Task: structure prediction
Amino acid sequence: MSAFFTKSMARNIFYGGTLFSVLLFLALTFHTTWTLPTRDHRENLTEQVARGKHLWETRNCIGCHTLLGEGAYFAPELGNVYPRRGAEFVKIWIKYRPREGVPGRRSMPQFDFTDAQLDDIVAFLKWTSEINTEKWPPNIKG
Amino acid sequence: MQLQYKSQAVAKPYFIAAIGLFVGQILFGLIIGLQYVVGDFLFPAIPFNIARMVHTNLLIVWLLFGFMGAAYYLVPEETETELHSPLLAHLMFWIFLVAGALTIVGYLMVPYASLADMTGNNILATMGREFLEQPLPTKLGIVVVALAFLYNIGMTILKGRKTALSIILLIGLVGLAVLFLFAFYNPANLVKDKYFWWWVVHLWVEGVWELIMAAILGFVLLKITGVDREVIEKWLYVIITMALVSGLIGTGHHYYWIGAPGYWQWWGGIFSALEPLPFFAMTVFCFNMVNRRRREHPNKAATLWALGTGVMAFLGAGLWGFLHTLAPVNYYTHGTQITAAHGHLAFFGAYVMVVLTIISYAMPILRGREANPERAQVLEMWAFWLMTVSMVFITLFLTGAGILQVWLQRVIPDPQEFMTVQEQLALFYWLRWMAGVVFFIGLMVYLCSFFAKDKPQTVETGEVQPAAT
Result:
């Protein structure tokens, strides 16, 4: 870079460009927040769904699974597990995980949930599956 | 050779802790890499989710140690004044180390749900989100350490010479601390949770961390090449402009499929497609500065790390990021091993390598010599190649696994179940694990390089030399 492009010009472009980008990002965020209610169906976000999310977090489910594609890639995507498997299958699956795992296979821990807690988790997964994700994932397998 | 400023010495424990935690990170990486193919390995003692959390959290913590060490080392030299409070820096070191160690012990010894109960997660729920799994007291500790650190660095810059390089570093560090506050925002609405979770994760690694990285790299190149400061700082401004202009709106590439409006596919796609530019500029910058060097610095290893950072950051963060950043591609690759491949090479190429660059440059000086003895440098360069090449192979194997996964699970007419697909990827996972073992060997060679001495006649003690200016 030759002499006509000075350090102070570079600095001004940095501050100007950054300020512009921050403002644009905030404007887009504002608009996104504005439109989210029609996409996340928050009218269905019950206390039970919130309890389910709390259980999801405190068992660190994201440490193995993905949820809407984010998380670890060790275990299946769960954003669409509700339509894929249905409520009963999910509850039975979680409930009967062998404590010592399955020999040689990836295993999910036994979390000793009560039936009410299992209902909470299913409610959370059901609500999650109804988010408008622009048709992701590509198919029901996740 | 002596330190120009005595207080720079506080950087040393930070660097040592960083390397120690790095070793822990790789050990847990080997555990989870093995669990991918031997599913019940260490189950139920250390389930995958716990080991992965240790792997990723140790990475974050050791990089933060590295950044703080780098700042404590370079800010006194840049500002031409002693650090505001070396005592505070020492105190924060111990607080951060103990908090970090207790957190890891907590992860390993206590079931995660009990840990959450014990640490006040029911008062303010912040845990259980990827990379932000830390208990509330740890998160608060991070805030305290970050504030004390910023105060210390800020006061030093305030009383001393204000170079562009140190200001860029400071902007990056302030951004790091401020954006971390979004870790405390965890609404019950998953979409809002995810949207602002990225304000920590993306705006760190594809935003403000790039400023920190550019400043560290600029500092090392300034020292080892002797190129004019004006040139280097001009380059830095160009790099960080590109980083923030592409990276801020580029956050949108995480908003495609999490419930945000569809227009993010355009905003995120176009701007994140530009994200390789700052990394490419860094590559050109590194080679350009080294080619135009005005001196032959005896620390060849540091030069190698600096050039390596320039190349690998571009490959990992730039190229492998671009690979799956456009929405039509990401629709198929999102949340597969492609993401894991990119994550590994990007973190290694950009942030691991820049921290190892500053350690390589500064550690010999902190130990009283301008450069390490020949044999130590040779070992360090072996470690460089072993770690870098094996990480490239880890990335290639994960990319292979990812392509196959996308094909079997998402493209073919009769897509297969997740676990059915995973079993067919075993070969790639075994190869990845073996590359991981080589990486670990490289890391051991790296550790050895700190203890290698030359034959007696070439040992340089340096105590009697005048301080370099």
Notes: The longest strand of chain A covers residues 66-67. Chain A has a mean pLDDT of 96.
